Each structure stands twice: as C-alpha cells, then as structure tokens.
Batch of 4 targets.
Target 1
Amino acid sequence: MLTTTSVLNAYDVALENFDAAADALELDNDTREMIKYPERVLTVSVPVRMDDGHIHRFEAYRVQHSSVRGPAKGGIRYHPQVTLDEVKALATWMTWKCAVVNIPFGGAKGGVTCDPKHMSQHELERMTRRYTSAILPLIGPEQDIPAPDVYTNPQTMAWIMDTFSMTKGYAIPGVVTGKPISLGGSLGRNEATGRGVFYTIQSACEHLKTPLKGARVVVQGFGNAGSIAAQLLHEAGAKIIAVSDSRACILDHNGLNIPELIHMKELTGHVEGFPESEPIEPEELLALECDILVPAALENMIHAENAPKVHARIVAEAANGPVTPAADRIFERNNVFLIPDILCNAGGVTVSYFEWVQDESHLFWEAKDVYNRLERVMKTAFRDVLKIHLEKKVSMRIAANMLGISRVAEAVKIRGIYP
C-alpha cells in the first residue's frame, strides 16, 4: 500500500524548485516570466456512455508548458487523483527533463480524472477516443506528442493514434509515442524509463565508488519503471530486498527473486503474498536499511515526516516528484545522494524521441541501437548535472534544474518575442 501527504500541491513544488534553480542561475525576471508558466492549459469535459447505458462525465486536461525548443511532449495519465495542478506540475517538469537530456522537445502532460481499475476495456476505449477528440486542436507530430503514463499503455496510444488519424484521412503514427511495435512503436520503449533509471544509478555508484554488485535495493512502486529498474539491478548483482505496489509491501532480507516476482505481478496484478517474503507497512519500507532507494510510485511520497527515517545512500527518483523540497533539505543534511526525477526517469522521453524520429523518417532501429543511444544520452546528462553539482556546490536537484532551465532560457532569449 502506498501513502502520500495531502497537504502538498505538486504545482507549488514545481514552482518552488524552479525558483531555487533560477535564483542559483541569477536568471533575470523577464526570462523567468517567459519560461516559468504554461503556454496553454485546456480543461475538457469527456462524456462517455458506460456499459450499462448511462452517460458519465469525466474531467480531463492537456497542458502545454513549453514549445520553445520543439514540439510539446508528455504522457497522459488515468487516475482518480488527477487534478489540473498535478498536470501543470508534470508538464513543467517535462520541459526541464527534455532540456536536461538535450532532446528538442518542450514539456506537456495530460490526464483524465477516472478510476481505470473499475472500467471495462470498452469503456476505456470510448473514453480515450472522446478525450482525444476533445484535445484534437492541440496535438500533432509537430505540435504536441502524447505518450503513456500512469494507467495508460500502448493500447491507449493506439486508440489515440487511430482517432487522430481518422480525422486526417491517413495514418499518422508520429502523433503519439509508446505505441505497439506494429503501429510504428520503437523497440526498447516499454523498458526505457526503468533502463534510464538503471543507467543513472550505475553512474551514481561509479561517482560514489559504491559497488552495485551486492547493493541492497528497495523499490517503492512496482509498476513499469520500478519493475524494469529492479530487473536490471538484479541482473547486475544487486539485492532487491523490498518492493511495494498499490496493494502491498513485501520484504525478503535475502533478496527477492525479481524474475519470478515480475511473472507473478503479470499474472495477478499485485505482489501481495509472494513466496518467502513477509508483509510490511509502507512506512517500514522507506525506513529499511539499504544502499539504494528507488521511489517509483506517485509524487510527494517522501516528505518532511518520513524523510528522516530514510537510510539509503542513493535515492533514485524513478517517479515524477516523489520527494518534496522539505525532504530534499533533510537528504542534504543526511548526506543522501539524490538522482532527481528530471534526470533519473528521463529514459522514457528519450526513447519516445527516438520513436518519433523513427516514425518521421520511416526507418526503424534495432533494440541494441536504442539501448546504446539511450545509455549514451543518460550518462552524458548525468555527467552534465554532476559537473554543476560539484562546481556550483548545489544539490543534484538544483543542478539538474539549472541545466534544464538554462537551456530553455537560452532558447527563448535567442528566439525573442513575436510580434
């Protein structure tokens, strides 16, 4: 089970992180005004005929934070707790994330406030197509390119691509990324976020001279990113001692059998009751003695109340915004090395960019080419952020934001204002 604090607003956190980095950059007020806030915010009603015949109206959003460096890019999430401020925060982080890994995209995000776990496949399809129709004026391969996020997947992207293409009269695979391979998806996209997390953890271990082999790892959130990162860490010789999902937290001090756990998760949808593991409470999970903690769930999961209990040497943010600014300050005092989200989990958007390039060029790459390109991008970005961290003596979070914000600021200064 996962818990979060209800008092923190994700968008307030995003703006606070921006201000801290902008102050460190000594960014002028004019530039701040041009790059801090979203360019477009769309709220739509999505009426859907449910399987029992009644109409249910869902609230939904699409936010484009920046198109300064290229088309807006960002996922779409389906979750009961989706709010406009959450989507604005995620779109903001996407802008800095794309700039950190130096790909020519800006940030966007979308969301529908719904509970997909209690909807049929037909209801999800009807909702997705209606939502796509509602945001149609904003999206396109040169304009705004959605992707999967929480509780959306390649099938969701296929419905969006088909809906968009039907309005144009021909197939336009580049309108979304994270598609099925048969519709122009990229090899390596499904595991891209988790693989990027793994590459940045490798780099952090090298920097800290901490062996990855034998390292004790805790993963909070055993979804796509968390499970893939766990798999790769397991293959590298690390010991995954505890994981959690929305239903349970499990512990095995001898190390969980990650391939078998992933198989069970695929079959049952949860990790509860995994053989040879013991159940623990969510607060116990974060307090476990470990070398690496991977928060891979939702935002604001680690905050001022529970951050002092974290005993990891490295915290790798596979999720977006899982650590609050107050927790950041506690980690700094406790000498915890943080790999911030806009660096750590940027593997997903990086391979989304690779997919978009392949779609637009009609030429597709082998999986090993995708992995090699991703590793090069992630480790270069890590070195760029680490250099600022060491030279400017700022936290890794501020260093990553400084890198991303400075690249967007440079672009907006060169482009100027029209008219």
Target 2
Amino acid sequence: MLSIPKITKPIKSLFLKIWPRKTSKNKIDFFLKKFRAHYVSVALNRIGGEADGGYLIPDILHRVKFCFSPGVGETSTFEKELSDSYRIKCFLADGSVQGPTVSDPNFEFDPLFLGPINDATHVRLDSWISQKVSKDCGDLLLQMDIEGGEYAVLNSVPRKTLSQFICLVIEFHDLHKIRTFSFFKKFQSSFNKIFQDFFVVHAHPNNCCGAVGIETFSVPRVLEVTFLRKDLVKTLLKTEDVQLPHSLDRKNVPNKKELNLSKEWWDKGVK
C-alpha cells in the first residue's frame, strides 16, 4: 500500500510562503459592506495644515485634554495646532527619531516604538497611557501613523483601553496586500475591534503610494481613517449622506495625483 508522507509544519509554511492563500472576493465585499454600514456623516474640521499631517476631525476637541500621537516622522503640524488652538497636551513616541521637528511646551516625547509588547524599545498603548495620565483624566484623542505597526497594536490592545479615546485618527498601511489572506485577517480583525465602539466619520486615501485594482474598484495602499466613539455620534450627526471627496480633503503630496476613494468604501447605495 502506497504511503503518503505527512506534510510537516516547515513544509506547509514554505508552501504558503511561495503560494500564499488568497482572500476571496466575497470576504472583501463583506468587509466593505461593514465599513459602509459604520460610515456616518458628521461636521468636520481640518486640523494640521493643508498637506501631509493634516486630518479631518469632528467638533470634539473642546472635550480633549490629552492626545497620544505615536509616529512622529517629519511633521508635527497636527499636534502643534492642537497645542496652539486647544491647549491639548500631546504625548509623542517614535523610536526612529530623536524628537519632533518643532518644540512646544505641550509636547512630551518618548524615543520608543508603539507595539504589542513592552521592552527596551517598545511600549504598549495601555502601558503608555497609564504612565502618562490618571484613570480619571477624561476623554483622550489618538493619532497613530506607525508605518504598518498599527495592526499589531490594535489587535493586542484591550477594548477598554481603546474606548478611553473619543476619536481615533489612524493611517492604515499596506492595503495593497488585502488579497493575501494572512494580511486580510489581521486587517479585518483590527477594524472589527474598532467597530465595537466607533463609527467611521472620514476616510481619505494618502496619495503618496498609489492604489491597486481589486475587481471593479480600487484600494489605496495607504488610507487615513477618522473614527468617532459611538456615544458621541448622535449629537454630531448630519442629515446629509456621506459624500467623498470631502471639501476639506487635500493631497498629502502636492505634486502627485490625488486619489479618490471608491464608492464601495462609503456609498450606502452600493449593493
């Protein structure tokens, strides 16, 4: 009798690396349907300037005392406007730079990466918050741009920690990998956790890196999303339907072509 050798884990891992499992179109459609269902229309203001570093935020900043902003990069215009216009104290963290490019008395910087563990170079979001503010500190704001590390952070952070924020502004990276199931799984898991307590109030493709075609629609490689906690939506909700691009949207990179988000992401008329 012919014996069929058992596929070992190393061989299976090699097989999946060479021929990664593909995400079905049905799974992507289901995710986009959920994204559309969680997209609501509220009045928005632009904070942080006219190019990269500027984001659309609902009218909630008068409630915020502290902003946590992992991922500093080359610009801190968002945090600077929070400090200058709203007197919001900003905690910044980034292990790849020595500090923000501008100084401000309301800035407090840590040379650490945000991550799913605490070690010499990383700090968890829940640990970082507990180090900086008291439990009764009030409503918080999160602005996160950590170059792909957002999925590990979101999938490891306790839901209770995330719900301390009334608004999340997150830049999601590597969306061109959405047809690879291993990426899609962590991508979908991140959004499912957020959707438990937040609605989407704005989404804008970063035109830095282009987009890829998925069947009949496009997916930007980098997508900025603003979320508002559900308990605040009722008082800010507009009767108008969501319409993109928003009048306050600006190109992240001025000398590159703008990207518009496909209606599959936001138009509730899409079936």
Target 3
Amino acid sequence: MNIVDRFLKYVSFCTTSDENTGMTPSTPGQMEFARFLADELKTIGLSEVSLDSNGYIMASLEANTELAVTGDRLPVIGFIAHMDTSPDASGKNIKPSIITYEGGDPHIDERYIGQELIVTDGKTLLGADDKAGIAEIVTAMEYLIQHPEIKHGKIRIGFTPDEEIGCGADHFDVKAFGADFAYTMDGGAIGELEYENFNAAACKIRVHGYNVHPGSAYHKMVNSMRIAYQLAVMLPRWETPEHTQGYEGFYHLIGMNGTVEETTLSYIIRDHDRARFESRKRELEHLVRKVNREYGEGTAEIEMRDQYYNMREKIEPVMHIIELAKNAMEAVGVTPVVKPIRGGTDGARLSFEGLPCPNIFAGGENFHSRYEYLPIPSMKKAMEVIRQIVQSAK
C-alpha cells in the first residue's frame, strides 16, 4: 500500500480522545484503530508485534547487519507516533480529498502552490496529527523489509493513545520498548526538528455559588459565573496563545461551563522556562486565594497537575541524535528547521523516563483545526528521513 492510500485509510477511524472518561484509551475508536494497526504490522512482516489492554502498540524490525559499532552493535532506534486526534475539532466522518493547490486560500501557506495537498471538507480536522506520522513510520518499515540491501540495526516502533490529552506516555513501558533513543514523528511543517518544548500543566478551578429566586436575591445570591469571570480577567490579557510566540509562555482558558450554583474554568499553563512555569502555577493559586478572601473560604477550589516538562535538559547530553536527524534531512534534500515546540509530544515525557526522544516533522499544517491539511510531498519526505536515519546510524 502506498503512503497516501495508507493515510487515507487511517483517517477513516474516529480516534478523538476525551479527557473526561477516565479510561485508557479514553475512547473506543482508538482501540479499534489499534487492532487494525497491529494486524497491519504483522502483515507487512514486523516481529514482536504487541497490543496491550491500554491500547499501546510495539513492534520490531530486526537488524540485518552484523556491523559492530562502539564495541558490539548498532544502536536500537525507535520511532513513535500517536493514534488519537485532538478534541479541539471533530474527528468523526472525516471526508478527505486531494487537490493541487493553486493559491488564494487564506488558510494554506502559499509556499505549497503547485503541490498536491490532502484537505478536509471544512467540517472536521484531517488527522494528520498524528496519523501522518503513523503512515510515514509504517511505510518506511515496509520499504526496508522489501529492500534488505539497506543495512540497519534493530528498529522499534511504538504507537500510543491519548497524546492529545497529555496521557500518551502514561502506560508506555520504556524498558520493554528497549530502544537507545527514539524520535516522535509528530511535528508540523517539513523540516521541523525539535528538542525543546513547553513545560505544561492542566488546571481546573471550580467556583461555588448560591442560587435563590432573582426577585429575592438581594444580599443572598452568589453567582458563580460572575465570580469565575472576575477571576479570569485578573490574569494578564497579553499572556495568552494569541498574543505570544517563540519562547513566550501563556495561560490558556480552554473551557468554561457554569450555572449560578457552580462554574468550572479549565486552563492549560505553558512556559519553556521552568522557573516561570512554576510562577504561573503559583499565580493561579494566588488568585483563588484572593477570591476566597473576598467571597468566603471554599468559594473557589483549584486542581492542578503537571503534564510534561521541557525535554531540552535530557537531549543536550545526547546531541548526536539531533545531528543524526539533521544529517538525514539534508541527505534527502530537506533543510532542517530547529525550533522550540509551542506544545508537547509523548517524547517530552519519555525523555524524562530514560528514552531521549526529540520530535521530527510529520508534514501537516493547521493541526487541531478544521482547516488542517497535509502536503503529500512533505509526508513522503518524512518517510525518507526515517529510512535515512536508520541506515546512517552508527
């Protein structure tokens, strides 16, 4: 199966993740897709294919060379991608189509004029994040199986659920994976190579009110929605995603649901700098205390959990794996674009669990949006980068 047909098959599975179910995987469509993938990996000839009860897939392509390096063997290299799609936009009944871009669309970068793009009908996301990454890995493995003259060490691949809700590494068994280092194929535009990412936390603030008939509410009613709004506007308005770039962090209100009796604010907190990240968390706790001083103890409650940290500190001691990826890109005609991730990947958490894991482009654009699209040449180049990495590793 060619890479385009493979990707189009993958996006027919609805794998939107959901942080509210408390299950792993968080939605049944992810397990359905996982079973399909596990069968496909066996069919193309990979070994040690496993699918666990949490929806994690691992498989191997065995080494086909006895070349001794650094005393005994070539490194075991891993490639990882995630099966879920973001809950920020619908991933159900995706209707992809292939166009040759002629320009003029405000949602598509003009550098792709003349290229074939996979797009949606504008009602759902596409799923290139990260089914493009899966298609690239699987197609690269199939090519290597069909071309045994390309010598390489052992390769491990892993596909995870629930990355989009910050849980992709929750049940990933680094020891069982057994790689010396790995790459997530989860970046955006062609050339992206990333080993710095946000420190990240998720936060829920619950505000409790008291409801009575509005006709007799004087000095009795406590409207939780008004208090929640008051709290929200106390945060600096310029420290939000739409006003920040590069290494600048932010507070992002991603959900607000309420009645007079109770309102919930859902935030994500992001910063590349660890000290500023901790300061942002303290600021939200301070605002909750401030609300409670004004309206009474227990009016507002806060729950906060760290999601992942900046992988840079774990990658810098092994920068040869960044050089390996850069050289592989250049070898296949791609200019590396080394940049910080304004987000995170499974690789961020895995790096802190003993598996150095930077991020390589998957090729898509406008992730998490109904305007998401995937340039086919970019996807094919990502696959070539994978092949080049494994045959160049020393």
Target 4
Amino acid sequence: MNNDNIFSNAQRAEVLTAALPYIRRYNGKCVVVKYGGNAMINQQLKEQVMEDIVLLWLIGVKVVLVHGGGPEISETMAKLGKKPEFVDGLRVTDKETVDIVQMVLAGKVNKTLVNMLEMKGGKAMGISGIDGRLIEADFKDERLGYVGNITNVNIQPVTDLLEKGYIPVVSTVACDENGNTYNINGDTAAARVAGALEAERLIMMTDIAGILRDKDDPSTLIPKITVEEAKSLYEQNVISGGMIPKVDCCIDALDHGVNNVVIMDGRIPHSILMELLTDEGAGTMVTKG
C-alpha cells in the first residue's frame, strides 16, 4: 500500500468523523427535497442528486423527493405540435395540456427518478398528488386553465411510505372532487408537503447560489435570513423577479410547520450533502427567527 492511499483513506475517515454530529442530528428526521431546473436536465448532476438522496436514506434520514419537470413538459408539447404559453411565469394549462402534464410528470419523469434511486441502492416509490388524494386543488386563475391552487394536503400516503422504509417520489399534479386534474407549481407543492410532514428541513434546489445582495455577484450570497429580514429585502428589491415566488414558498413552508428552508444551487455537485452534513452548508437558509 503506498502513502497516497494511506493519506487518502485517512482523509476519508476524517470527513466521515466530521459528518457524525450532522448524521446524528438528521437521523430519523424528515427532509423534503424540491428537485427541478438544470440539476434535472444535466445527467451527471441528476446522478449525483440521486446519490445524495440514497446516502441520506442509508444513514436514517427520511427523505421525500418532490419534483417538477417543466422542460420535459415543454419538450413533449413541442413533439405533439403544441406551443407552450405562460402568464406571470405560470404555464397556461388547457385540457389537452394538463393531460400532457400528467403523462410526463406522473409517468416518464417520476418513474425515471424512482428507477435511478433504485439503481443507486435506494428503495423508492413514486406517487402523484392524485394518489390517495395527496394534493387537492381548485382553479387558481381562469386565465391559466387547469393550474391548481392547493386546498388540502392528505399526507397519509407519504407517511405510510416513509414508515415502510421507502423514499417517496412525488410528482406535482393534483385533483379535485369533480375528477379534474391540475398542474401545480413544484415549489408550492413542496412547501405544502413539507409543512404537512412538519419536516426538519425543506431544500429548494434552484439555478442560482441562493439569495444574493447583488444578483450579478455570487460572492454577495446571504447565508441566513429570518422571515422579517426577507420582508425587508423585498422592500429593498434585493429579492425580486423569479426569487419572489421561491421565497414566498419558503415562508409558506415555515408557516405550515417546517423547521427551516434552504434555497440552494442545484448545479453544484453534491450540494445536498454539503448543506446537511458539513458546517459550511450551501445556499441561503430561511428561518422563522
């Protein structure tokens, strides 16, 4: 055995030992991961996210994966000759489009993620918001068609899967008592599912580093804010554009019982492990204060 290997193994042991307090903290706790964006498109990043989730599951963390799939929906619509329309950043979803959304999210995307988690050594089960009436909704805005406003979360299907040792993989479609299907914003769905679980942490994977004081300068990342500080940052226009609905979802999750929420860059390899199992963390943590 050469010295390089001895040094490398010693480093590995040191990393594992340093992670021990964090492993102890999250063992048996529930963590919800909202997954989408570029981390979902890039195959190598997707593999790493699945590895992170399986590793957390193996050390006793109860992980729930809530996913979107906007790019895949748009791609499928294009193949079918249907042009996507958006109003205020939300997809206009007519009857034909909501059928495509259900097919892509609850079918292709959901089962691909389940299969990847299984291939990495995890035990996963895919469900949609329709299964067990997990997510109930009604019409959010008549201009948007079948885009849903969440009216109720029946969390029992997810807790049943967790108790049986599965990683629940939740696609963000919903239903109502009349049998309508709705397209639900992934961040909103993740916030409400995490709230219903009273999760220890909700991790919102995005395409930027977190909340930045200067949106063009990653070095201005704000590592931690309270809800009150967030409201002040709205007024200062530090939180603006597409970050506004994300922070709104963070506050919604905290209001519904989540302990803390982290907005972080899903494009960084193994960012979930960096956030949960190191003292540096990743992204911006939002807390009640």
